[in-house]
Task: inverse folding
């Protein structure tokens, strides 16, 4: 019974994620969907800043805290391991949906590219950013990342095994192509409003901070293997990487047997 419930739950969580992901493209790009970064709830500027920062903070805290190994060890005492990732994905998606629903409009124009070729170029870069995000998930394991592999293995009665560390395609160019794709998509916009600028600054700042926590966890889990990877490959901007990773060698924790 649990195996059937787990795979059904995982499928529902994935559908909610997929809906939130697709909606986020329209939300950021300001098209198709009813609520966007420039078409939210009208309110005073001061209230808009406070509410929007809180909404972004809710997502940031949930997304980062639940991803930490210490939290996972505690959380899986309450939630079966097979659905831990699906639950994380579901709660992240719900945090995004809350933001879409309650986002406050800040309509002041910061910049507006009116030259047609320039607008077309920015929209092309915007689309490329989202494409990088999506393709990068498949370059590792899309279905493991969003919890489907875990529930499928549970349904089959097969023990879960961590994926082997691999650096394929874009992961040979930058260490975090998913995050790079998000940053590109958030900033490549022809008409930048105050609300969109707040969104872009806050999410970029969050990404840069979250990457530090993620890399700390990866060094702890993979040890010298990940440290060497850091020395070879840039974090976000191709070509900008450390020739030597000695500065962080003291923080490496050997992988447990």
Result:
């Amino acid at each position: 019974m649990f195996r059937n419930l787990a795979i059904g739950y995982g499928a529902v969580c994935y559908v909610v994620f997929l809906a939130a992901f697709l909606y986020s493209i329209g939300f950021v790009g300001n098209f198709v969907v009813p609520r966007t970064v420039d078409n939210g709830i009208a309110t005073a500027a001061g209230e808009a800043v406070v509410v929007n920062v809180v909404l972004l903070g809710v997502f940031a805290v949930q997304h980062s805290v639940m991803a930490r190994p210490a939290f996972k060890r505690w959380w899986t005492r309450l939630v079966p391991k097979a659905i831990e990732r699906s639950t994380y994905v579901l709660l992240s998606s719900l945090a995004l949906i809350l933001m879409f629903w309650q986002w406050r409009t800040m309509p002041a124009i910061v910049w507006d590219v009116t030259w047609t070729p320039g607008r077309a170029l920015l929209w092309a870069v915007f689309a490329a950013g989202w494409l990088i995000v999506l393709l990068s998930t498949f370059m590792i394991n899309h279905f493991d990342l969003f919890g489907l592999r875990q529930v499928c293995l549970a349904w089959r009665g097969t023990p879960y095994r961590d994926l082997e560390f691999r650096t394929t395609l874009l992961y040979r160019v930058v260490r975090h192509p998913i995050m790079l794709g998000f940053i590109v998509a958030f900033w490549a916009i022809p008409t930048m409003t105050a609300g969109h600028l707040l969104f872009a600054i806050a999410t970029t700042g969050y990404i840069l901070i979250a990457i530090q926590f993620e890399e700390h966890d990866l060094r702890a889990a993979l040890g010298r293997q990940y440290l060497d990877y850091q020395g070879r490959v840039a974090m976000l901007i191709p070509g900008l990487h450390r020739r030597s990773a000695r500065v962080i060698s003291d923080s490496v924790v050997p992988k447990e047997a």
Observations:
- Strands lie at 109-112, 191-193.
